[in-house]
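2024-03-11 09:14:02 DEBUG pipeline.ingest accepted 1 chain
2024-03-11 09:14:02 DEBUG pipeline.ingest length=307
2024-03-11 09:14:03 DEBUG pipeline.predict start
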Amino acid sequence: MAVLTLLGVPTSAGAFTPGQEKAPAALREAGLAAALKQRGVELRDLGDSPVWRWRPDRERPRAQNLGAVAGGARETAARVEQAIADGGLPLLVLGGDCTIELGVVAGHLALDGDVGLVYFDLHPDLNTPSSVTEGTFDWMGMAHALGVDGAEPELAGIGPREPLLHADQVLFFSYGPERARPFELELMVRRGLAGIPLDEVAAAPEASAERVLSEFASRFDRLLVHFDVDVVDFNDAQLSEDALRGDGLTLDTAMRALKVLSASERLSTLTVTELNPLHGDEEGETLSGFVELLADSLAASPLLRSA
């Protein structure tokens, strides 16, 4: 039976509010292992990193909880690198806020070959502490991965090289241009950052994802997929920390695209972020429904199919 390695990173250090630190445990409790096993995927669960719950940081309002965010990313990098060394690919990393992706990327850089990142997110997260006054790192992760001017060195420098990624190694998938700040949009143009906007993915989820695999993923040895649940309209499924209503994809549309991305033979790691289990219904159906669709997507991977 195929084996998927799971790492939990229960942190909301880089978030706007507490809650995301509860997601890894909540997804397990919602039946993730059973749903995967039912589809022929065995789960090797390496457990969770220490819990770090959001707290106010009045000393650094434009770079809140920097030490905890950077420390969490470094620990994630070490855990990912060790899991890979132990033959643990592919990986499923459960966050936790978006900043954990920095650690996932850094943990892969010890391997030979090129890494490409599909950033499946409603927001490009290209802000820096010098470009915005709201100093939450949740919307700054990719700026630090790309070494944008104004990024905090303590966070941008967590890996074996800086920047962690170059512009041609990132594709922003299902981003909402109206949700990006002018600084971010200008940066995307100036850096030549590629992306497929929300409206295109909404109109043709499978075709958009297939385009990613043929035009982007095919250039790399390993593919990382970052899936931020805020890409799902909160009216359709109450999953995200960011309760945007009337904006984003339906859950079904998002998971149809994710299933295609997961079918790549180059898939190395899927990271799931921004899930706040406190926002779902009291009966737990929101989470259990998401778990079933997530298991469907992962079972599409040829690396995880039973012989």
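2024-03-11 09:14:41 DEBUG pipeline.report Residues 2-299 form a domain with the Arginase; Chain A fold (CATH 3.40.800.10).
2024-03-11 09:14:41 DEBUG pipeline.predict end
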